[in-house]
Each structure stands twice: as C-alpha cells, then as structure tokens.
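Subject: Re: docking follow-up (NAP)

Dear J.,

Thanks for your patience while I sorted out the input files. As discussed at Tuesday's group meeting, I've set up the holo structure prediction with NAP included as the bound ligand rather than trying to dock it afterwards. The sequence and the ligand SMILES I used are pasted below, so you can double-check that they match what you have on your end before we go further.
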Amino acid sequence: MTTLSGKTALVTGASRGIGRASALALAKAGAQVLVHYGRGAKEAEAVVAEIRKAGGRAHAIAADLSQPDGPHKLAHGVRAIVGDRLDILVANAGASKAAAIEDYTVEDFDRLFAVNVRAPFFLVQQLLPILHEGSSIILLSSLAAHAVVGTLSAYAATKGAVDALVKHFAFALGIRGIRVNAVAPGVVQTDMSNFTKTDAGRDYTLGMQALKRLAMPDDIGSVVGFLASDSARWITGDTVHVDGGSKL
Ligand SMILES: NC(=O)c1ccc[n+]([C@@H]2O[C@H](COP(=O)([O-])OP(=O)(O)OC[C@H]3O[C@@H](n4cnc5c(N)ncnc54)[C@H](OP(=O)(O)O)[C@@H]3O)[C@@H](O)[C@H]2O)c1
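The structure tokens for the complex came back this morning:
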C-alpha cells in the first residue's frame, strides 16, 4: 500500500507506543516520516532503522515538548529536513498521571497541559507556513475526555481541550484545505497504560469494552494512517473513537 507516496509526515512521541505505531503505519503507506522523541533517542533511532530496512525514508528529531519553546525548536528542525512542505502532522506526544484530586500538584497540572495542549497548539502554529491544501493534522484525544476512566481528572481535561482545539483548528484551516481531526483511543497497551499488565487492570479494561481483547498500538496507528490519507478527504473537525466500543 503506497497511498502516501511522496508525502512528508511528522509524528511526535514516535519513539514508543501509539506514536511509534503511527510512524510505522505512515511509512508503510509510503510517507517519509520524521520520528520525534523526547528522551528516547535509542528507541527513536530503532524506529528509523526499522522504516529504512523496509525501504522507507525516516529521520529522528528531538525536542522537549514540556518546554515553552519546544514546539518552536521542533518546527525549526522539521523545516530544515523537509523544506517548505509538510503533508501530515500527528501531534501524539503525551504525558499522563493517575491521581486523586487531592494528590495532583500545580506542577503536575502544568506539565500535563504543557505537553498535551500547549505543545500541539504551538506546533500547529509554527508549522502553518509549510502546511498546505491537502495536509492532514491528527491530534491525540482520549476516551477519558468523555467518560470517567480511573482517576485521571487533570489528564482528561487536557484531552477535552484537544477536542475543542480540533473543532476550532478545523474551522480556521478549512479555507486552506487543511483537515484537522483527533483519534480518541480507549485503553491501549503502552507504557502509559501499563496497569493492563495486572489481572485487575486487564479485567477492568475488558469489562468496559464491547470487544474483548486488549488494544495494541497498531490498532490506533492504522486509523491515523487512514485519517492522513485521501480516503478521509471529507472528514474534518472530528474526534474518531478508536476504543473497541468502550463505555457504550
Ligand atoms: N495508552 C493509552 O491507553 C492511551 C489512551 C488514550 C490516549 N492516549 C494518548 O496517546 C498518545 C500516546 O500515548 P502512548 O500510550 O503511546 O504513550 P507512551 O507510550 O507513554 O509514549 C509517550 C510518547 O510521548 C513522548 N513524550 C512524552 N513527554 C514528552 C516531552 N516532554 N517531550 C517530548 N516528547 C514527550 C515520549 O517520548 P520519549 O519517550 O522519547 O521521551 C513518547 O514517545 C498520548 O497523547 C496519550 O495521551 C493513550
């Protein structure tokens, strides 16, 4: 499948988990992929090597997205590699914390909003000059934005903000032919949701899903690949639930 042949893509947080699976899906469809990472240089290089081994094009690129100027630095680095044309932006990098309301600190709250909301906002802003008619932006929302899952109140609020951004971005950028959507995964087996490794976590997750298996990162990556493609050309401003029928 080479539906994205000739396209350039940036996936943030592609060193692990859902970002990694999204980067691999986009590369498999023919896109050149910039594999962004924060701390996981080795992991990101391994993703790049995997893409190249399969005949694709990829580069690793670092930026700390918890810093106010992180998105600006990342956009600068992206432009140095792809020049003046970016077709696909997957703002996937995210942080989470499970805690009771009483136990969240101001630092926790600010860090979650910095990585999950401020960074995607300013990354879109900084990359706007190289996005164009036909470009696709995909943000990462969550089941937690619209249903109670565990003790994730501040994290869930960041994902509610992402859903709001999707609509405002989609309306503002539609005139330029740029589509903006989010995917909202349920619980996916990654480092972020490592509670699924316990029997209790697994039972809780399967109990709230219609489909009775645990989600893997590529269950989400394939939908990211679809939203990036021309098959999704009439979808914008939407948050697509990719959660095996969670909390129906
Ligand atoms: N897993 C789930 O159940 C689930 C459910 C719903 C939504 N989501 C969302 O899906 C996205 C990916 O989640 P995941 O489960 O794949 O997470 P993960 O396995 O914990 O990976 C997080 C990724 O984000 C990057 N990242 C985190 N903080 C960063 C920072 N300050 N600067 C730069 N990069 C940073 C990490 O990079 P390094 O490791 O290189 O630092 C890593 O690549 C997130 O937005 C998450 O909220 C996940």
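A couple of observations from a first look. The mean pLDDT is 97. Strands lie at 8-11, 32-37, 58-62, 88-91, 136-140, 179-185, 239-242.

Let me know if you'd like me to rerun anything.

Best regards,
T.
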